[in-house]
Amino acid sequence: MPKQMTPGQRRKANALIRKTCCNYDNGNCIALDDGEECVCVQSISYSLICKWFVNAVLPVDKVLYAQIMGQKVKHCAACGAVFAPGSNRAKYCASCAAKVHRRQKNASNRKRRDNADK
Question: Residue 1: is its pLDDT beyond 60?
Answer without folding.
Answer: no
